[in-house]
Amino acid sequence: MRLRARPWLVPAWVVAMTLGCERGGVPEQAKLAPSSSAASLGTLDLDGQVLDPLAPNGRADVLVFLRTDCPISNRYAPKLARIGARFAAAPVDLWLIYVDPDETPTVIREHMQAYGLPGTALRDPEQTSVARAGAEVTPSVAVFDATGDRRYRGRIDDWYVDYGQARAEASTDELVDALEAVLAGRSPAVAETAAVGCPLPPLR
Fold first, then answer.
1. How far apart are CA 154 and CA 83, in angstroms?
2. Is there a contact between 141 and 153 (Cβ–Cβ < 8 Å)?
3. 2 falls within a domain
4. Neighbouring residues of 141: CB distance < 8 A, sequence distance ≥ 6
5. Which of 156, 180, 182, 181 has the alpha carbon at shortest distance from 167?
6. What is the pLDDT of residue 170?
7. CATH of the domain at 143
8. pLDDT exceeds cutoff 60 at 21
9. Which residue from 8, 37, 50, 81 has the highest number of Cβ atoms inside 10 Å of its Cβ?
């Protein structure tokens, strides 16, 4: 998994879990000029450039939908770090899609640093990636294969039963299972689940 967040200073426990996760820069194939027809996608990197996370590059993609003020999203940060480390060498790109239009690049960078999040952060102020993936809450995820077909959408696992109600530990691992299946050229056994989390912020 190509993890392309900028360097950060994080607590020792985060460093231990994410060791080896950080990788190089964003592939040029994914960069889109603002004048491109893909500019209507509205997904931006933290420097304000339009970027399509699903641009074809021969790699699978995982989109993780987040907002900085969602306590459930934040509690999943250690698991996301472990998943990043587990798939660090795989042909998969991990994208953190921030869905709140009021969250600035500075706030997002601080959030990634504070929680030790792996991957490349993108802003989705018009929630266009949300629509493409069918995301409904944060956190939720979508897995796309190398051809751009969505193969899984829904929860990371079943840790949360309802908002504010969590199990002692998860008994399923849908995101990992879907990733393993896609990388092996198979369809995931489960293609869609209902995610539990914070509502998407309204668009102005």
1. 16
2. yes
3. no
4. 62, 63, 64, 65, 152, 153, 154, 155, 156, 175, 195
5. 156
6. 96
7. 3.40.30.10
8. no
9. 81
Structure tokens at 202: 């309204």
* pTM exceeds 0.70, yes or no: yes
Q: Per the structure block, which two tokens stand in for 51?
A: 């970027």
Checking phi first, is residue 199 left (phi over 0); if not, alpha (psi -120 to 50) or beta?
Answer: beta
Range of the domain at 138: 12-199
Structural domain total, the chain: 1
77 falls within a domain: yes
Paired sense of beta strands 198-199 and 60-66, if any: unpaired
Interval 106-164: pLDDT, tens: 999 999 999 999 999 999 999 999 999 999 999 999 999 999 999 999 999 999 999 88
Q: How many other C-beta atoms can be found within 10 angstroms of the C-beta atom of residue 195?
A: 20
Q: Is residue 17 part of a domain?
A: yes
